[in-house]
Write a structure and sequence with these properties.
Blueprint: H1 3-8, H2 15-29, H3 32-43, E1 63-69, E2 75-76, E3 88-90, H4 95-102, E4 107-110, H5 113-123, E5 129-133, H6 136-169, H7 191-200
Antiparallel strand pairs: 1-2, 1-3, 1-5, 4-5
Length: 206
């Protein structure tokens, strides 16, 4: 198995299989950065993943747009346009979970303790879950596949460059070369600070 072979079969295999094969090769070749990214995508951006550290960030391409629900399943609407970023959540799930959820012909409901605590702290509400359309997962999976393809091409080219350098070191014959509303409870909010805090939810451990 080679990076070129994985790239050639990228559209014929599950993304989980392609990432798994890439991880085995990355470990063999000592490509630590590539290996770290592969492990995060495969196992998810969660605390039980050894690849996750304080510098890890859930990538923006894992974002989906949806709505928050209370414990009775009622939507918590964001009426103020300045707070619409609260409806964008970055998914921490493993690639196998994302592929499984993408086959559903319905909405997906998840719970993230960090998000629940954030909304409770800043808006004095207790959301129960976050809900979004499963169709959006196809975009997330395609984004991950595109990045895998870019990584594979990068390392295929770097390996070829090394091969060329090695051949140049050995003399050869010429023939052999080639509706949340801020203020509704009477408090004020610094929206820029709030937005930064929201993004920090996806820059730390789950």
């Amino acid at each position: 198995m080679s990076f070129q072979k994985i790239l050639d079969n990228l559209d014929d295999e599950s993304l989980n299989n392609s990432l798994s094969k890439s991880l085995r090769l990355a470990k063999q070749k000592g490509l630590s950065d590539f290996e770290n990214w592969l492990q995060l995508e495969l196992l998810g951006y969660t605390n039980n993943n050894d690849a996750l550290n304080e510098k890890s960030e859930v990538p923006e391409y894992r974002s989906v747009t949806g709505r928050h629900l209370d414990q009775f399943g009622r939507p918590i609407l964001v009426a103020d346009d300045r707070l619409l970023f609260l409806n964008d959540v970055r998914l921490r799930n493993s690639i196998s979970e994302l592929e499984r959820l993408s086959t559903r012909d319905e909405t997906v409901t998840i719970q993230d303790p960090n998000i629940i605590q954030f909304l409770k702290q800043h808006f004095e509400i207790e959301p129960y879950a976050f809900q979004f359309s499963s169709v959006q997962l196809l975009g997330v999976l395609n984004a991950i596949k595109t990045r895998l393809s870019d990584y594979l091409l990068k390392h295929i080219e770097s390996i070829e460059d090394v091969a060329v350098i090695e051949t140049q070191l050995v003399p050869k014959k010429e023939s052999e070369l080639f509706e949340l509303k801020p203020g509704i409870w009477g408090f004020s909010i610094n929206l820029k600070v709030l937005a930064r805090k929201w993004l920090k939810l996806f820059k730390k451990k789950a």
